[in-house]
Specification:
alpha+beta; single chain; 5 strands; 166 residues; 2 domains; 5-stranded mixed beta sheet; DNA polymerase, domain 1; Ubiquitin-like (UB roll)
């Protein structure tokens, strides 16, 4: 395998522009964790099978461990740190806290990013759509029932917020 020389890339992550220097084939996950110090993005399998590294790219849930930096172009990246804050959590984050949906917490950030992306594109997903969105995520702690309850709670909370805004 031939390595290319490092190049400079501009990324928009959580609303902030960043310049990084890296090999074009460097996985986005490495840039997020090492260069930008965004530790909410987890390294799980490194092969796009477990979902721990899920972020949003232009609002779509994408696994960052096998996404080369050069494939980003001008896309906007959102990590769990950009979804909400401790003071004002995103409704998905709040629902996961309320339902105590995490045990070890390793996979939950990626799962929340997928649920938030799903709700953004489909505010009223049915259970089949929710299950499809979560299918690529592995949780070894066995909190699947709580995860589904939290996702449904977030969907209901966002629907209620939309209704009250009318």
């Amino acid at each position: 395998m031939t390595l290319s020389s490092p190049q400079e890339f501009e990324l928009t992550v959580n609303g902030t522009r960043h310049r990084v220097r890296a090999e074009p084939s460097t996985p986005l996950l490495y840039i997020l964790r090492q260069d930008l110090q965004l530790k909410g993005v987890r390294f799980g399998c490194g092969a796009g099978h477990c979902g721990s590294c899920t972020v949003q790219i232009d609002g779509r849930a994408v696994q960052s461990c096998d996404l080369p930096l050069e494939a980003l172009g001008s896309s906007v990246v959102t990590t769990i740190e950009g979804l909400g804050t401790a003071a004002t959590p995103h409704p998905v984050q709040q629902a996961f806290v309320d339902e105590q949906a995490a045990q070890c917490g390793y996979c939950i950030n990626g799962i929340m990013m997928s649920v938030a992306a799903l709700i953004e594109h489909n505010p009223a997903p049915d259970d089949a759509e929710l299950l499809r969105a979560l299918d690529r995520h592995l949780c070894r702690c066995g909190t699947h029932v709580r995860i589904l309850r939290a996702a449904r709670r977030a969907i209901a909370a966002l629907a209620a917020a939309r209704e009250s805004a009318r």
